[in-house]
Design goal:
CATH topology of the largest domain: Thrombin, subunit H
CATH architecture of the largest domain: Beta Barrel
Number of domains: 2
Radius of gyration: 57 Å
Helix content: 10-25%
CATH class of the largest domain: Mainly Beta
Length: 468
């Protein structure tokens, strides 16, 4: 009995120990083993069948963990890099430094710097001045300096000469642009703003008298406005030959072109303000020609020469130096037999001209448009000259009585007169030109055409032939 009890206890201990035995190494293919129910506890020694240790060992299976399956490696998805923000720095604008004021150069410094930009313009009938305002070789001058001249020669301060080409002319504003060779060493003077100057400010006028470059200094005395034109009146002396020359500021900028001298109560000159004609200068550089309209508005017109019947506005000065404005028109031009017939209406006997010569009878209308209300202005034949097509001057015909009235009047503003002039000219001179004020500094200059020599009769019409 005791032996059986001992064996049962050993079997129980073995069963318990089997339950605590660590799991064996995993098998490739595990086999499930049914787990038997545990034996009931023994309260008293009783006769119990003792299982064999082998049976007990088989009855309690050892748990086998599942075989881990190999995990396929995961390919990581590419991740776009996050751009690092760049900080943009906005520069802080620095205040512009205030340029120091330009020092005012002395007159001698102005002359030394500008004399190379002032040229002498020589034509077959005279000379004037001009100023280089563009380094490409553009020269600005007065229209009456170069008008009607087939060729112009530019003479520099150092004596060098160069052929100049007339590009554009403006007869209304009395401006012209001529072209010389542009080069790197050419000195050009910039165009300034005359509006920055006031009455009493200093100015410089430069031009040629003969072969000498002369500078005169004065002040701006007035700003004269005639229609769309602005003139700068100065007390600077304009010497003959200064026409077309520049009017400078003390800083050496050209603000005007001298067009006329003043004689009367004092001396001085008149220059056209360049800022009032600034838009026309590029057009003159391009070769445009501005002719006066057949019926110009009051304010100035210089069509050179003006056709018969064209009204021309002419500026001038009274005895006191005040600006005046006249309108002149050649109403009628007779020569040859027609002139003799007109003179025959005045006198029963007309002294015949010399062989190869003939009379020219001109009827002019002169209207005094503007001037001092209390002053008269003399309008007379002495202010007119008749030039031949070769350039010499014809003399008035004093040997015959002219039609009435002869042009010789003292006019008040807003008055006009129709009067006659009589000349003797050559029969074969087809294009004589009548000029006003050429030799008178107080008179504006204008030119007028007169009738061609003789109108040729048209050829007879062909006689129709039989059968045509």
């Amino acid at each position: 009995m005791a032996r059986r009890t001992f064996l049962a206890a050993v079997a129980l201990l073995l069963a318990v120990a089997a339950c605590r035995t660590p799991a064996a190494a995993p098998e490739p293919t595990p086999t499930a083993v049914p787990t038997p129910s545990p034996a009931p506890a023994i309260d008293a020694p009783a006769a119990t069948a003792t299982p064999s240790p082998l049976a007990a060992e088989e009855a309690t299976p050892t748990p086998v963990p599942p075989t881990p399956q190999p995990t396929s490696p995961t390919t990581p998805s590419p991740v776009a890099p996050t751009p690092t923000p760049v900080q943009v720095l906005t520069p802080t604008p620095l205040p512009k430094p205030t340029p120091p004021p330009k020092p005012t150069p002395s007159e001698s410094e102005i002359v030394a710097r500008l004399k190379e930009s002032v040229v002498r313009l020589v034509t077959p009938v005279g000379q004037g001045s001009g100023v280089i305002f563009d380094q490409r070789g553009f020269v600005l001058t007065a229209n009456h300096v170069v008008a009607g001249s087939p060729q112009v020669t530019a003479v520099f301060a150092d004596g060098k000469r160069e052929r100049a080409l007339i590009l554009g002319r403006d007869e209304f504003r009395d401006l012209a642009v001529v072209k010389i060779s542009g080069r790197d060493d050419l000195v050009a003077t910039p165009i300034g703003d005359s509006a920055a100057l006031f009455a009493g400010d200093s100015v410089l006028v430069m031009g040629y008298t003969g072969e000498n470059l002369v500078t005169t200094q004065g002040i701006l005395s007035d700003r004269v406005i005639l229609g769309a034109l602005t003139f700068l009146q100065t007390d600077a002396l304009l010497i003959p030959g200064f026409s077309g020359g520049p009017l400078f500021t003390p800083q050496g900028e050209v603000i005007g072109i001298s067009v006329q001298s003043i004689r009367g109560a004092g001396t001085g000159g008149l220059a056209i303000a360049l800022d009032s004609v600034q838009s026309f200068i590029p057009r003159l550089m391009a070769g445009e020609l501005f002719l006066a309209t057949p019926s110009p508005e009051p304010g100035g017109s210089r069509r050179n020469p003006a056709p018969v019947g064209t009204r021309v506005s002419v500026t001038g000065f009274s005895i006191s130096g005040a600006l005046t404005l006249h309108e002149m028109t050649v109403l009628e031009s007779l020569r040859g037999d027609a002139a003799m017939a007109k003179l025959g209406e005045v006198s029963s006997f007309v002294f015949p001209p010399a062989p190869g010569e003939e009379y020219l009878v001109l009827k002019l209308r002169v209207k005094y448009v503007r001037g001092p209300e209390d002053e008269t202005v003399r309008v007379s034949w002495v202010y007119f000259d008749l030039f031949s097509s070769q350039g010499f001057t014809y003399t008035p015909a004093f040997s015959v009585r002219p039609p009435d009235p002869l042009l010789a009047f003292d006019l008040l503003p807003d008055s006009q007169v129709d009067a006659y002039l009589v000349y003797v000219l050559e029969e074969d001179d087809a294009k004589p030109v009548l000029a006003y004020g050429v030799n008178w500094s107080s008179r504006g200059t204008s030119w007028f055409q007169v009738m061609p020599a003789k109108t040729e009769a048209p050829p007879p019409s062909p006689t129709p032939q039989q059968g045509q």
